[in-house]
Amino acid sequence: MSGTTNDELPRGTPLMTVHGRRRGHVENLLGAGGQGAVYAVAIEGTRFALKWYHDDIASIDRTLRARLSRAIGIGPPTDRFLWPIDLVEIAGSKSFGYVMPLRDGDYNGMRDLIARPPKRIDLPLSKRVMVCLRIAQNFLELHARGFCYQDINFGNIFFHTQSGDILICDNDNVDIDGMDAAVFGTRKFMAPEVVRRETLPSTKTDLFSMAVLFFYIIHSWHPLDGRRENEVQIMDSSAETSLYGRNPVFIFDPQDQSNGPVPGVHDAIVARWNSLTPAIRSLFTRSFTVGLRQPGERVLEPEWRTNFARMVDGCVSCQHCGYDQAPRQGVKGQTLMPTVCVACGRPMALPPVLLIGRDTITLGPGIGIAIHHIDPDRPVDFTTMAGIVEEHPTNKGVWGLRNMTRNAWKVTLSDGSAVTVDPGRAVRIMDETTVDFGRRVGRFVTGDTASVPRERPR
Fold first, then answer.
1. CB-based contacts of 270: which residues, under 8 Å, 6+ apart?
2. What pTM did the predictor assign?
3. Which domain holds residue 198?
4. Are residue 44 and residue 116 in the same domain, yes or no?
5. Residue 354's domain is classified under what CATH number?
6. Tens of pLDDT along 304-316?
7. Per the domain annotation, does 316 fall within a domain?
């Protein structure tokens, strides 16, 4: 939100929360938009964000107050939602608002990923995938409670460039799935059936909007913008309805090339598409082929989450051109199969990996294995690490995986001998070495040419 409004609340304006009857005051304007304005406020010594609606919004959106009261009573699905805490009233005003947690200034808006240079944030592929993973995790929790968001788009999700963490705002859109929606959504994020006004937003349309957001985050491009969109002379409502509602076609539809990529125009999109794992490409293809016309067949959050997590584990950068990708090298026996860079076409020297079940974890300095890799009962969580890759303090070029758990690891070396790696100690990364972590067993594969890279984007 940006700009100011004629009915801006002056600094120091007193306010009162409706349910908690707590007093506070307005500090400063943070931004403004079509529905209202957002302010920093202080309530009994604690700072919050206040969304204050324009006077006419309550009369236009008749379910708004009830929707907010219901959300306040139920509470947030996770702590990543900047969820309404309490309604707010100001004496003498016809309007109202709600307070929510104040967003940390270290978070950026999603639009920064597609902004023109130099404002664009060039986030590494692994971090982009991590953002998608976190979005899938949190919307899974929202939908599991019987809610739909109704308006997933660039403007209501923020990300942290270092951790890949997210924050979800504008939760006054949220309502019980199946209730009459207050909004249709945002242009280019709406499901085709909503564009055609055949239905209102629901969890099924949320799934489509979420897939569009994932494609945008990874490719900085819309999945339905291909040859047909490139040939449009005037992008009016009729053209938009055709492209995104009546006749939508995925840019990488394997059966319909009518909206395929145009050489010289979409080369960067093609390279990024080729850099993804086959599993993620398959999910996007399902989302924007059968998922365009059969809402019940859209990809659910757990499948996105599982495959995004595996892709985070596998991202590397080409040592020649630096292009981030998830190489489809595969492992045959004890050998990493060779691969070439999708951007420059030159052979890539692959780092060693740790194989644990179906997970192939690429190893690099400061990167290791998360707790969910070794404990199948733990949810996907890249914030809690079980082991970290470190270089030997005196023997340069020798790398190990340090045990950061509370349990000893049982290690079997290539010659069959066994050793115990206690908490705080490290096991050297060597071919044919297996590690029994307790619940799962992993195996290092380095191949003949693999070496731990000095840097790896995350």
1. 261
2. 0.90
3. 107-308
4. no
5. 2.60.200
6. 999 999 999 888 8
7. no
